[in-house]
What does this fold into?
Amino acid sequence: MSQTGGYIFAIIVFVLFSGLFSAIETAYSVASKIRLKNMLNDGNKKAGDVLKILENFDRFLITVLVGNNIVNIGAATLGTLLFTQILGGNGPTVSTIVMTVVVLLFGEITPKSIAKQIPEKFAISTVSFVKFIQVILTPVTWIAQGWQWVVNKFIRFEEDDSDIADELITMVDEAERDGDLEEHESDLISAAIEFNDLEVMDVFTPRVEIIAVDVNDSLDKIEEVYRLNSYSRLPVYEKSIDHIIGVIHEKDFYELVYRNKTSLRKIIKPVVYTSPNTLVSHLLKKLQTNKTHMAVVLDEFGGTDGIITVEDIVEELVGEIWDEHDIVEEFYTKVNDNTYLIKGDAEVDDMFDRFDIEDDDEDEGYISVSGWVIYRLGHIPEVGESFDYKNLHVTVTEADQRTVLQVKVTIMDTQNTDEDE
It folds into this structure.
């Protein structure tokens, strides 16, 4: 083989190794550890070798970068010798142009594009080569890691405080957009991810909406409450709603009536007491342990702030659960494309999601649209009062002395709103 042929052959080999190193870097960087673990569980031992390498990603990255730079420098050097031999004084210039194009196409762009399509398979197929190169370049790796340690001592980096839950939700949203997940599947996964952050105050039924009976009420009166409200369980209080002593079940109540007994206390089941700031996930475990379906939410003074049931908690995961006796309440009535009538007890978070705007005051503690309107106006409003919030014009259409019953929300033109500001 002539000297020129030897240069060409060596350059081809170096470029191929450059492409291999580039592809390995991409494959190991984007490979899914979850998929690799599944492959390992299915008996693929090489997937376990890949995971071990990824446990010390810094060493892997240094090894690949060193190997890639060695072959790239080698290819550039041989290219200069080749083109100088052929073209003389213009050889270095032509070599720079040609080798840059060759390395970019065949040593970077093409192999990285291929590896990105099949990262796990490519990583597994090259794991033996990576382990071999790591052993060969161990001395160089030690030097590089030592230098990295020195740099980290002098340059401090703030730790990333990003929430893993937010990252997971973003991944789920992307999977939905890409068509890998249906909308209901995405909603269920997102709800499960956010479940551990939910507090009782985000879910419970407030005090003013509690349907309860007095322990001294007549059986006829209690039966009327059951008949009018279609609840299977009713909280029982003594003297005041602030002193809920337990809960009665509809089945036990009618059995009591059937046996002509009058002592309501015999069928009262105990309830769990909790605080508004308790995590819903912790409360659910407590309800399961106590084999009860309802908890009383107490305020800071020990009075009743509201109640929460297992159904309330489950609905946070799977959405509203309706049975054949429930009356479906419509919180939103569409007047036209830009105007809606909204009930005051609708969830304010749902309203903001529906209109795709961000609540700047979400930490103020309100849950309902009524609470939000009262906060924005600074008092319990009268019918006709209005205000603007971002691109929404809100008008109170129904109200009483205690709360806002309904508002009219008009979506204003964003461009005009910006000009006014």
